[in-house]
Amino acid sequence: SQENGICTAAEECQCMDKTSSSKLLNKGGTVVNADRQQQADIYIEDGVVVEVQPNIKVADEVRVLDATGKYVMPGGIDPHTHLEFPFMGQETIDDFFSGQAAALAGGTTMHIDFVIPINGSLAAGFEAYAKKAEKSCMDYGFHMAVTTWNEGVSRDMEILVKEKGINSFKFFMAYKGELMVKDELLLQGFKMCKALGALAQVHAENGEAVAEGQSRMIELGITGPEGHTLSRPSMLEGEATARAIRLAQFVNTPLYVVHVMSIDALDEIVRARQSGQRVIGEPIVASLVLDDSKIWDPDFTIAAKYVMSPPIRASGHNKALQAALSTGLLQLVGTDHCPFNSTQKEAGIIDFRKIPNGVNGIEERMHLIWDVMVNSGQISVMDYVRITSTACAHIFNIYPRKGAILPNSDADIIILNPNATFQISAKSHHSKIDTNVYEGWEGKGKVEVTISRGKVVWEHDRLMIERGSGRYISMPPFGYLFDGMDKIDSAYLSSLKAPVYR
Ligand SMILES: NC(=O)NCCC(=O)O
Ligand SMILES: [Zn+2]
Ligand SMILES: [Zn+2]
């Protein structure tokens, strides 16, 4: 019902709330941060939190939101999305407006998207994504993918970190012939990340072996979506995770493993962390709550919607990842929201290798993590805040502006009713994708209100959003993961010199 952010149909209004006040009082809820929960009110002015105290008194003109009996928490931050992503000959169906509208309806108030270089140029990729994101209706940041290596790339990395607010670079170890990089590039890239204080991220799968596995399936006559899963077993995720971890250890730089899908990858991350290495593991909603059963569905449209990489694994991996998340072995939850319509997925109807990879999740993450992790008793509400918001803000160095409800924090806040129910369906979701991998899910714990920088943008199941109102969030380098790294380097250098000069 909207064009250019302007309401065109009153009966299904998603327009900007012209009456929205710049002063707001959240009254009577349980305010939850990652380290504390309390009964308190929250006073918000001009997009930021001013006060968090019990019984705040305000003037009559201030809008009051009653949160009695509900949890008031920092808005979700999704560390892993792909909006308007050109991939496998297609482009993801959600743009920065529709994807963010979906996010806000699900209680996520910031996301970090992956910029893809253009013909290897990071600068050109960044400019293109900055343009795409002009239509944003919520705050966002960027990671940058590195797909080739030359002097221009290392120069661009430096400019992006020092001038453009990027503090993380992703290296794809899979997608041979498209985004995949070799170990030589990983090493150069990790070294540059270390020098710049930027976090190295990996898509960890052995891309050479995946290509071999794909040929094997085709030779066996397995051309359907199940061929995708069979061609890239979890051992290949484990191998690449281990390799990236070792290389990061060799360079002595922190590492962030995106979309952890398997026990194999989890085991490598846990082993590295136990040995003191700084490795962050990001499971995604799909790896936590789904299993691979639907990939064998005889209906191509159903099976193809689950095709993503690394693949959604057999039941058992999901439970292990949940347990790891609940005990802090994994640190935060993303979505890898990468939505392709059923018609786009049909590109691979006779050859699974051509099915564009990706699943939805930006709108569902907050609800599903609540339902699966909090309702089951696996985590506390404070843990929920940590894994959906605060940890991400810490890792990407934007805390406490984001990821907290504290004086001076951005007023990105959700009100969740633990007694209300939610249902997931492609018929009612806000993403443009025509399918949903969580179709039919019914659960308890509903985000009833989303506040984005002090504006109520989701209430009574309606969006009130404004195209172009979202801001780019610059993320400074040398976050906490880099603290003390220089001391480890010095100790290493001294240990080398000692035997030489004796
Ligand atoms: N994961 C996936 O299948 N699609 C998005 C690209 C990526 O993150 O690897
Ligand atoms: Zn990936
Ligand atoms: Zn991704």
TrEMBL record:
Hydrolase found in the keyword field: yes
Any one Pfam family match given in the protein's UniProt record, by short name: Amidohydro_1
Gene3D superfamilies listed in its UniProt record: Metal-dependent hydrolases, Urease, subunit C, domain 1
Highest taxon of the lineage: Eukaryota
Modified residues annotated as N6-carboxylysine in this record: 170
Essential cofactor(s): Zn(2+)
InterPro entries xrefs: Amidohydro-rel, Hydantoinase/dihydroPyrase, Metal-dep_hydrolase_composite, Metal_Hydrolase, Metallo-dep_Hydrolases_sf
PTM remark: Carbamylation allows a single lysine to coordinate two divalent metal cations.
GO-annotated biological processes: pyrimidine nucleobase catabolic process
Entry's EC annotation: 3.5.2.2
Molecular functions (GO terms): dihydropyrimidinase activity; metal ion binding
One Gene Ontology term, aspect cellular component: cytosol
Domain spans labelled Amidohydrolase-related: 71-457
Keywords: Hydrolase, Metal-binding, Signal, Zinc
Keyword Hydrolase among record annotations: yes
Swiss-Prot/TrEMBL catalytic activity: 5,6-dihydrouracil + H2O = 3-(carbamoylamino)propanoate + H(+)
Family: Belongs to the metallo-dependent hydrolases superfamily. Hydantoinase/dihydropyrimidinase family.
Subunit field text: Homotetramer.
Name listed for the protein in its UniProt record: dihydropyrimidinase
Species this chain originates from: Picea sitchensis (Sitka spruce)
